[in-house]
Amino acid sequence: MTVKLNSKAFDHAKHLVRDGKVVKDTRDDWSEHAPSTQDENKFLDKNGKAEYGKWYLGIDDDHPDDQKGHYKFPFGDFSKIHRCAVISAESRASQNDYDDIRDALGDLLKRIDED
């Protein structure tokens, strides 16, 4: 599996933080705050894959870009970035040696916590 940093999503996430579109929740909240499969599908159908992809910091080249599996490491709910999602994704990226993604998530967490 080849997963690399989605630089468009990283830029999008930094803009969300800068604009104050952040939920400062706690580490274990992501399981409750993550969009459901139904929410993901609605967003994808309404906004297309380019907008959908902006909410995932990883791109998996083993999956075609028209499949949801192409996108990894979600960081928000399609309206705001969630601190808990960033923490969860940073841990998973670290466990899987995706250093560029881990570093980007660490940067986002620092930005969120500075505010």
Any descriptors?
5 helices, globular
Please, could you describe this protein's structure?
- By secondary structure, the chain is of the alpha+beta class.
- It has one domain.
- The protein is 54% helix and 14% strand.
- The chain contains five helices and five strands, in the order βαβααβββαα.
- The strands form two sheets. A three-stranded antiparallel beta sheet has the order 1-3-4.
- Helix 4 runs antiparallel to helix 5.
- It is globular.
- The model has no long low-confidence stretch (mean pLDDT 93).
Provide a compact summary of the structure.
By secondary structure, the chain is α+β, with helices and mostly antiparallel strands.
Strand content: 5-15%
Largest sheet: 3 strands, antiparallel
Calculate the mean pLDDT score and round it. 93
Helix-strand category: alpha+beta
The main sheet orders its strands as 1-3-4
List low-confidence stretches. Answer: none
Helix content: 40-55%
Order of helices and strands: EHEHHEEEHH
What would the principal axes of the Cα set say about the shape?
globular
Domain unit count = 1
Radius of gyration: 13 Å
What's the end-to-end separation, in Å? Answer: 35 Å
Instruction: Compute the number of helices.
Output: 5
Report the strand count: 5
